[in-house]
Amino acid sequence: MKPFDQRLLHLAPGARAGVAGLAALGTITGIAAIAQALAVAHLVFAVVRALPLREPALWALAAFAVRGAAQAATEVLAARTGVAVSTELRSRLADHVLAGGLEARRDGTAPLTLLTQGTTAVEPYVARYLPAFVASVVLPAAAVVAMAVLDWRTALIPVLTLPLLPLFAALIGHATREATDRRWAALSQLAVHFLDVMKGLPTLVGYSRAHRQSATIRAVSDDHRRATVETLRIAFLSSAALEFLATISVAIVAVVTGVALAEGHMELEIALALILLAPEAYWPIRRVGAEFHNAADGAAALDEICAVLDRPTTAGDTTARDSTTHDTRFAAGDVPGHAPDQDPATVRLRDVSFRYDADLPDVLHGVTANLGPGLTMLTGPSGVGKTTLLELLAGLRTPTGGAVTAPRAHLVTQRPFLAPASMRDNLRLGAAGDPSDTDLHGVLDRVDLGDLLARLPDGLDTPLGDDGFGLSAGQRARFALARALLSDAPLVLLDEPTAHLDPDTEVRVGAVIRDLADERTVVAVAHRPHLLDLADVRLDLTPATIGEPR
């Protein structure tokens, strides 16, 4: 772990002012600590020699006040900077992960762990370790200089022993870093396994195999527990070693000054000042050694966050997406091959190919088409790549060949995301502006969900369960279509929007889609004849090819 990771300032520019403020407050605290030691020594000397106490008492009180105020300001600024940094890192990491396309989200647990425990672990690094590190740079040097001015022979003791503390800390830190990496890996493994078990719990319960996972969860938890205890053991041992070395060094200073005072080679005031300054020289390094272990998790998490942020995204870092739903948006200017003078509602595919893995054959190959405003239907047998083509148009996947040019899009998947929140909040996900309740009632009536809403006692305040629990598959599809109506995206992508609807409802929903296509560019995947008959253009897909519009 580096003493100060400069990547933090690059990833979280808002932290620069906070770090600069912490450095300034650390310098003020160091100067106040030196003044405090000298003032207290002078005050005690005045008491012993029966000298006037007013002036030394005022100086001591002023030094105490300045140091206390600086330390209090450091605590407040460090806490605020830590929260600001973790929030900025979390926002930037979420934007990057959501902009990375589906390929970058195959393992959703690792990014989720970084977004929660990872960014939270950076807070102690900023709020506790950085102030301690600044103090360890300023205060020991100031204390040694003050000691050298008073008695250069005594100052040789910290000059010779102080370098041993960071040396030991670096040696111990190397072992701590390895232990911390193992602990972080164990935590990630625990999170991955727990999420996998939760996702597969209905299947495990259905086959009466849920109890068999108890032993596996216990084993993974024990690995995390052992890694945590190993890290704590190293932390305690290293802290004890640093405390022992610092205590011995301060004791040597006390013995040397005591002998010099007894033999009459040193004044009482100077001896007191040296004894009071010695702990100030060692205490900051002891503290940074203790805080090092508190911040080790943050440093390991920062490495993981940097590794994720260094990975390229699908459409560049400027891509903007709705991170809350599957209704994905991206700016046309961010898509390779965009022509600024083209119709903003036009979709262009130029020799587009895609494969899921380098060892697998192309799902799409040589796709070339221009899709203008209106309703375009993608048809073809299952597995031919219709959903994949929609994901390419939405910017969720990166083509392995060719170029996709498309405006900002709103994608309605076969299983749309519904959050465990009220119907009102779910409808407003991805909506343009702030639609009123009247607007929400209007779109629900258009997609034939008005009667359902009227039967609910709480109306739009009715909470939905996890993943839309409480709605049927057909109601979920129409709910997602209502969200598409509320968006202002010029391109709407629909994946089997009427698959779960009865014939009468399909007719009514088809009319809504037809009206939507009169206003925007709509590209839909469908198999049912009624919806196909509404199309302005049909693209018949065959394996690894695409047909001409007809």
Automatic annotation (TrEMBL):
The keyword Membrane applies. Residues 20-297 form the ABC transmembrane type-1 domain. NCBIfam families: CydD. InterPro entries: AAA+_ATPase, ABC1_TM_dom, ABC1_TM_sf, ABC_transporter-like_ATP-bd, ABC_transporter-like_CS, ABC_transptr_CydD, P-loop_NTPase, Type_1_exporter. It is a multi-pass membrane protein. It is found in: Cell membrane. The chain crosses the membrane at residues 20-48, 129-149, 155-173, 234-262. Residues 319-329 have a biased composition (Basic and acidic residues). GO terms for biological process: cysteine transport. PANTHER family: ATP-BINDING CASSETTE SUB-FAMILY B, COMPONENT LINKED WITH THE ASSEMBLY OF CYTOCHROME' TRANSPORT TRANSMEMBRANE ATP-BINDING PROTEIN ABC TRANSPORTER CYDD-RELATED. Residues 347-549 form the ABC transporter domain. The keyword Lipid metabolism does not apply. Residues 315-344 are annotated as: Disordered. This is Cysteine ABC transporter permease/ATP-binding protein CydD. It comes from Mobilicoccus pelagius NBRC 104925. It holds the Pfam family ABC_membrane. GO terms for molecular function: ABC-type transporter activity; ATP binding; ATP hydrolysis activity. The lineage of its organism: Bacteria, Bacillati, Actinomycetota, Actinomycetes, Micrococcales. Keywords: ATP-binding, Membrane, Nucleotide-binding, Transmembrane, Transmembrane helix. GO terms for cellular component: plasma membrane.
